[in-house]
Amino acid sequence: MRLDSKYFDRIRTRRKREQETEQAPPACQWDGCDKKGVHRAPVGRNAEGQFFLFCFEHVKEYNKGYNYFSGLSDGEIARYQKEAITGHRPTWTVGVNKAAKNSPLHSDMRSGSYRVRDPFGFVNGTKGSGPRFPEQRKLKSLEAKAFDTMGLDASATSSEIKSRYKELVKKHHPDANGGDRGSEERFRAVIQAYQLLKQNGFC
């Protein structure tokens, strides 16, 4: 757009407001000082947002002796500093409910060992007359082999796995077989299978 365009002539401009008469700055509030008080200095701890007006020399003098915590004990100062971290707002510890406080940390749990707490049976469908969806485990190849070694199927409960393990250990232990080395391989396989199932949360 050119500066000599006809559109510039149609633009209306507001009239300039009459400049308000500037007031002279107040005098310094230091006793016996007649200089201009243009520098602000805080009044004190219980008067936030209020300021004294001093000249440059006297504001320096005031700030040298100013102490926000004057009149407070060491314990009150420490409490104030601690609350200042959160902006003096109330805080709560993480996991205030009892169930969250007593539950294991995710970092402490083994893979597959976590089960959802479902007191009302919404997830597992145990509310009312029996489960709506029977829980079926999808086994990995090593887990399926471990169940086969133990002579159990995938729907075996934790107590069934433990009792079967005790039974097989007693049966194949070398001491129970008179030192026969033939059942030693089977004994090792049973122990390894049980440890794998335990690590994956089956028992």
TrEMBL record:
Superkingdom as given in the UniProt entry: Bacteria
Record PROSITE patterns: DNAJ_2
Domain J: 145-202
Name the record gives this protein: Molecular chaperone DnaJ
Organism of derivation: Rhizobium altiplani
